[in-house]
Amino acid sequence: MTTNNFSRFEVIEALAGSGKTYKLAMRYIRLLAMGASPDSILATTFSKKAAGEIRDRVIELIAKAVIDKHAKQELLKEVPELEHVELAQTLQLLTSNLHRLRIGTIDSFFVRTAKVFQDMLGMRTDWTILDVPSEKELFRDAVCELTNSHAELARLAAAFQWGLGGSRVPVVESLKEMYNSAYSSIRESGKTAWLWGTRVNVTGEKEAWEGLCRLPDIEPSAKGQLKSIPKTIEQFEAGQWKELLKQGIPSKVFDETFTFHRKRLTDEQIEATIPIVEFAKKHFRNELVVKNEGVYHVNSELNDAVTALKHTQGRYTFDDIAFYLGCCKVVENLIELQYRLDMQINHLLIDEFQDTSVMQFNVLKPLISEINQSGSDRSLFFVGDVKQSLYSFRGGEPDLLRHIDSQILDSKMVRLEKSYRCSAPVLNAVNAFFMNAQNIQQLNDISSDAIVRWQEDFKLHQPANETRKGYACIQTTNEDDEVDDVERMIQKVKDVTLSIIKDAPEATIGILVQKNTKQQIQRIVHELRNNEEKTVLAAEHRGNPLTDSPAVTVLMSLILMADHPGNSVARFHVCASPIGAAHALSFADDAGCQKFGKQLRLSLLKNGYEVVLKEFACLLVNQATGRDRLRMWQLIEQAAQIDSGIVMRPSTFVDYVMNTRIPDPASSKVQVMTIHASKGLSFDAVIMCDLQDTISNTPKVISSKDDPFEPPSLAGLYSGEDSERVLDEYTVLRQSHKDEVVNDTLCTLYVGMTRAKHALHIIVPTRANTKYKTLDCVLLQGFGVTSSSQPNEILWESEDSTLAWKQDVPNEGTEDFSASPDTLNVGKPSGNGAVKGRGVPTRSPSSLEGGGERNILTRFGQSDSASFDQGTLLHNWFEQIEWLESTIQEEWLNEHTPNALRHRMGETRVSNAMKLFMDSLQSIEIRQLLTKPTEHTEVHQEYPFLVRLQKGATLGVLSIDETTDISGTIDRLVIERDSEGNPIRAEVIDWKSDVVDDSTKEDTVRHYEPQLATYVLSLSLILGIDPAAIQAKLVFVRTGEVLTLAFDDSIAVT
To answer: Within 10 A of 5 (CB to CB), how many other CB atoms are there?
Structure first.
């Protein structure tokens, strides 16, 4: 693979908004143009959204070039090899092989690899990813395993004292905090990184006592010095060595300043104190060594217990998968890897490389080395920006990007220096601040070397579009002495947001906060949504917990009553709602509420959360807004997922709902989030606010590396600067932590500021000075603002700023989502669209049933949950049958009944389902479906697919009215191939457990017709065969009837 100006091994260092996704997409297209097969290209990134954007960008660029000559010429500039390639064929190749494209997250690639190597990794065949609720339960079980003996309990108690300062805290939560902080470095680095200190012989006690006895009798240099001596004696007697070295006269001898109460200590005072300090230093040193040893041993054993449970239960985190793949060196055997994955990885593309962890890199390293040393038909391409490395707390190592050229021979480094996102005024602000970073005193006090390293990666930013209008400023909050800083900030945010919306109603606005420790995000959203002047449908990015809906909070109070009928808040909430009225509940009637809670608890045990919530949601739906109805339906869908997994007690279920973000059905142009969460996004206007938190942090564990490509070489519990004077290793550890604090601070500000396309508003509180180590003071010093500020003051404004930028945002109208409680249809949004985004909408085939429109009220109908569970179980049994080669026995059915379904359905309903299944197998038609017809026939169970249908595609009675990704699963797919392995015919089988008779059959078939048509059309595109060669069979299990649907010319692709 040789061509002009093509570098096989390329590393792109991109600034924010410089088009790195575009560059990666172009690289992908260029590889295709040079003859690479789509399934030989592995492109990875760090989020599903980013992976989708890369895939969409590749297809979009080629599609535009097919229909637009100008777009084709622009594409040829980047990919000259396309001059001799038929673009329409390339597009067809991509769209017909979407299911084979290897564009995804790095975690998804690791999971797929682990699935095919599970025998080598010692995993169960049915292993799954461990979700958050399950992880908490698993950790509790591991703690119970670890505390079976008194000896273990004593060791854990010591660990609390070591790691948590002896404070009284919940056992499991405290262990979990310590475990989260320490286990990664312990697991990756082993004991050598932790057990580095040596205990010293504690001598000099006699001399220390003598000095302590002399000290009160020595004439002090300042009167106040004597007052501290009794406390020093008390600390000495109590063995509080760390405290002794931090207070009184010993602290000034320890830090060698020798000045106390503004007077230098006398030589006699110093002489008497030195033995005390030396004796205390030995004890303090040993305490640090013992703490690190203790935390290492406890966490090692805790990790063993957690790991054993994970293996037993077959549930792992994404980090576990990467760790096991690295330990077993799976990727080193590339021939075996390619054979099991059924793909040859000739080209590796990694996006956001600065967020790659050492553990992830070590999994990929053999593949990278092999490609690097192979022939000319293979390539590597890495892209990232060290200035946007925000994930060090997850193991992200930006130094991998800085030094990747040392790992790749003949690599080409390219730096992108123009921003296609930000306006000139926004970039003026970015340049003004970061070019002046070396003059920020707060950061220099922490680590001046880290500033220098960061600035080496920063080059003057230039706008690609110099005519784009924009605005950037720093302004103070409003004046209001009756409220605190947070409330003043919220009011200012509201004012700025409303001023933007007034002149540019279609502008997207990102409101970015430093942290959410005081529920700042939720408070901003609430203030904007409840503004009297104009309601702003702001939303928390990535969704809010469903409890942002009043109707859902009533249902959560209802569930809490099942656990605690005496919960007065929950009881009052339910009794005051339509649920209370329907069930004649009175807050004062304790006996009645207790009885209701008991009945509710029994119903939850019998029917599960989905059925119970659906029943009570019906009582709220007529008085709920359209948005509340949608949120209630999302809750029911969430409950269905939980019912199919682990069993949760009611209070745990409520906690899960309150802490799980679900996207709001009313997509908002105003998004509120932390700066960290904004990475990868962009907005017409950005408002950075609530920046007054400290920039430093006190982690549980700190670590240091000798080599960025290796795990930490040194790790230990965090300790203050005093530790540096007794253990040299802590000097190294603490310096590494300081460098990280400075890097994280600068990266956080860089990401926040560069999210803005047109306008950047930085809101800060009024300050008498800027000496504090807070993010807002760092900003002010960087912009050269050092004087005191007044309320409502513009402290800094970018050159060429103009509010006329708002005129450049097109006004397309808005849609009101404060829906009335009338009938609300769930389907495609109306023409002007409240839900807008860059991506193509995705629908499932089942969502097209009945023509694609479903009335929201029908979702709350009294459907039979027992029938749903029975249908799920029947599907599961049919899924286990490849071909019917022997008689199915009851023992086989019991073996293939999921425990969660058996628990929910009960033995009677399971037995009834078994009888129905056995009866269905007596049907000659069904038995024929399950009998293998020829040797060249293969069967796929639960066959997943993804295809893109363009506007105008017809699916039976339904026509697709916008470009749509169809993603779904076919119950049973039978493919017949010719002697050369090419597909020639296919059969789609869809199991249905509906109750049908002659009077309802026709309507039922018509209802399912679009879904089956979708399967036929999608398979036609995937397999490359005519739709007429694909039979769609609707199987009604209860009657044993098989209906073949004929679509003739009723399905087509434009």
So the answer is: 5
Domains and CATH numbers, the chain: 9-124+326-416 (3.40.50.300), 471-542+669-807 (3.40.50), 544-662 (no CATH), 842-1045 (3.90.320.10)
Residue type, position 743, single letter: N
Q: Which helix (H) or strand (E) holds 476?
A: strand 471-476
Report helix angle 205-214 to 267-313, nearest 10. 130
When the pLDDT of each residue in the chain is averaged and rounded to a whole number, the result is: 85
| Gap between the Cα atoms of 209 and 216, Å rounded | 12
Beta-sheet pairing, 462-463 with 418-419: parallel
CA 216 – CA 227 distance, rounded (Å): 9
Q: What is the mean pLDDT of residues 781-804?
A: 91
Q: Copy the structure tokens of residue 222.
A: 């300042």
Q: In sequence order, which residues have a C-beta less than 8 Å from that of residue 672 and are 6 or more positions away?
A: 511, 513, 521, 524, 525, 538, 539, 540, 541
| Element housing 57 (H / E) | helix 48-67
Q: Where are the alpha helices (DSSP H) in 530-689?
A: 550-563, 568-575, 578-582, 590-617, 626-643, 650-658
Contact between residue 591 and residue 560 where contact means Cβ atoms under 8 Å apart? no
Decide the pairing of beta strands 714-717 and 701-704: antiparallel
Least confident of 260-264, 501-505, 541-545, 734-738: 541-545
Amino acid at 411: S
**Three-class SS of 418-435:** EECCCCHHHHHHHHHHHC
Instruction: Using alpha carbons, list the distances in angstroms from residue 151 to 140, 156, 157, 170.
Output: 19, 9, 10, 19
For residue 203, which amino acid is it?
T
DSSP string, 882-939: SS--S---HHHHHHTS-HHHHHHHHHHHHHHHHHHHHHHTT-HHHHHHTS---TTEEE
- Distances in Å between the Cα of 836 and the Cα atoms of 21, 418, 962 are 20, 28, 13
Q: What is the value of pTM for the model shown? A: 0.73
Q: 430 is written with which tokens?
A: 């970015």
> Which contiguous run of DSSP H or E holds residue 672?
strand 670-674
Region for residue 865 given its phi and psi (left: phi exceeds 0; alpha: psi -120 to 50; beta: otherwise): alpha
Could you count the other beta carbons within 10 Å of the beta carbon of residue 464? 14
Which residues neighbour 268 within 8 Å (Cβ) at sequence distance 6 or greater? Answer: 218, 219
Per-residue pLDDT tens for 343-387? 889 999 999 999 999 999 999 999 999 999 987 789 999 999 999
Whether pLDDT at 819 is above 60: no
Between CA 871 and CA 876 the distance in angstroms is: 9
Spell out the residues 6+ positions from residue 803 whose beta carbon is closer than 8 angstroms to its own: 471, 503
CA torsion sign, 527 to 528 to 529 to 532?
Answer: positive
Lowest mean pLDDT among 400-409, 645-654, 726-735, 1010-1019: 645-654
Alpha-carbon distance of 289 to 292, in angstroms, equals: 5
Contacts of 327 (CB under 8 A, 6+ apart): none
Q: Band of the pLDDT at 816, cuts 50, 70, 90? A: very low
Question: Does the structure show a pLDDT above 50 at 309?
Answer: yes
Grade residue 184 by pLDDT with cuts at 50, 70 and 90.
Answer: confident
Mean pLDDT, range 419-423, rounded to an integer:
95
Rounded CA-CA distance 35/93 in Å is: 12
Closest CA to 685 of 668, 664, 669: 669
Alpha helices in 201-333 (DSSP H): 205-214, 229-238, 241-246, 248-254, 267-313, 318-327
Amino acid at 629: R
Q: What's the rounded Cα separation, in Å, for the pair 31 and 379?
A: 9
Q: Which positions ≥6 away from 649 have C-beta within 8 Å?
A: 563
Query: 275: helix, coil or strand?
Result: helix
Say if CB 450 and CB 742 are below 8 A apart.
yes
